[in-house]
Design a protein that fits this description.
Blueprint (H helix, E strand, L loop, with lengths): L2 H18 L3 H12 L4 H7 L9 H37 L18 H14 L4 E2 L5 E3 H4 L11 H4 L9 E3 L5 H10 L5 E10 L11 E11 L4 H16 L5 E8 L2 E10 L16 E10 L1 H6 L8 E8 H9 L12 H4 L10
Parallel strand pairs: 1-4
Antiparallel strand pairs: 2-3, 4-5, 5-9, 6-7, 7-8, 8-9
The structure holds phenylalanine.
């Protein structure tokens, strides 16, 4: 067969084989078959020596052209296969950004913070401002201006961690009242709640902790009465324990309020009939409160002839223990996830 025809036939065969190759690895075999040392082309090249010398250059050129052409055909096919492979991979790995993401495990807001936030929401809805203050306080704000002078027996009620003579870890959140009244300069009405950590030298046991949380409330205005205090506390009790709860005020003593009261809420377990939970009294004590003492108003720059106020202090742990039937206050601080997770609220961390 004439060489030209032979080469054309060879090219057809190559094209046919390339069409059948579907993987890049397959191309190597085709390449070896058509361009390798033992390939037809190499054999033809070997036969060149039998040709008359004047025909050799043209023959050699034709074979080389064919080699380049074959190599180009194979490269083209390789590029095609590579492109197809990338295309397939892209299709396979395509991300549907409209699909919902995996459900990330979110933490649980600590039950004490949940209660503080509930109280904040409740009071902000009634026009209160949330105020915070430092946990390291001065004696003056924690005691003196709250009508608890040095050597007053009430200081023992609040056995204190002193840092030095003048500085201490606050024993209640009441110093934030003092700070706010001083900040307001004795003129503006005050309507605040002050949540935060407090400290007392108690030995830790199921009902005592050397660190605990309070929310203090203070209202000072020109016609503030005990009825306002009672109505406010009733609102808190119902919000925290349910709409059917009643409250009861009992006379008590705090140096910074006069009169002072202890506030009980009707027992949720027996609805006030008496049961072991409320020690058969029908009521459970939840907080202390009273009308702000004139000495406190004066010491904080408010004229007691013009202004009256009420204040209350809620123990957050106690509230949580009553609300959820928790027996040991220490459970709040040990961060056992089995405990913490019980208070997970639907719809996220808050
Ligand atoms: N500060 C008081 C305490 O910690 C609570 C309290 C606040 C009582 C305000 C009356 C009025 O014990």
């Amino acid at each position: 067969m004439e060489v030209k025809k032979q080469l054309e036939a060879l090219e057809k065969t190559l094209i046919g084989k390339l069409a059948d190759v579907s993987k890049p690895e397959g191309l190597n075999d085709v390449k070896a078959e058509f361009l390798g040392k033992k390939a037809v082309l190499s054999r033809l090249m070997g036969a060149m020596k039998d040709l008359p010398s004047e025909e050799r250059p043209a023959f050699g050129e034709r074979i080389n052209q064919t080699k380049r052409r074959f190599a180009a055909l194979i490269d083209e096919k390789r590029a095609e296969l590579d492109a197809a492979r990338i295309e397939a991979k892209l299709l396979e790995e395509r991300i549907d950004v409209t699909l919902p993401g995996p459900d990330l495990a979110s933490g649980t807001r600590h039950v004490l913070n949940q209660i503080v936030e509930d109280i904040e929401d409740l009071f902000m809805g009634m026009g209160y401002v949330v105020k915070e203050g430092p946990e390291v306080e001065c004696d003056d704000y924690n005691f003196e201006r709250l009508n608890i002078p040095k050597h007053h027996p009430a200081r023992d009620m609040q056995d204190t961690f002193f840092i030095d003579k003048e500085r201490l870890l606050r024993t209640h959140t009441s110093p934030v009242q003092v700070r706010t009244m001083l900040e307001y300069g004795g003129e503006k009405p005050v309507k605040i709640i002050c949540p935060g950590k407090t400290y007392r030298r108690d030995d830790d046991d199921p009902t005592h902790s050397h660190q605990f949380m309070q929310v203090e409330g203070l209202v000072v205005d020109e016609d503030t009465t005990m009825a306002d205090l009672k109505g406010t506390l009733e609102t808190v009790a119902k919000a925290m324990f349910g709409a059917n709860r009643r409250i009861r005020l009992r006379p008590s003593y705090f140096p910074f309020t006069e009169p002072s009261v202890e506030v009980d809420v009707s027992c949720a377990a027996c609805a006030g009939d008496g049961c072991p939970m409320c020690k058969h009294t029908g009521y459970i004590e939840i907080l202390g409160a009273g009308m702000v003492h004139n000495n406190v108003l004066s010491a904080c720059g408010y004229d007691p002839k013009r202004y009256q106020g009420f204040a209350f202090g809620i123990g957050i742990e106690r509230l949580a223990m009553l609300k959820y039937g928790i027996a040991d206050i220490r459970d709040f601080y040990t961060n056992d996830l089995r405990f913490n997770k019980q208070f997970k609220r639907p719809g996220g961390a808050r």
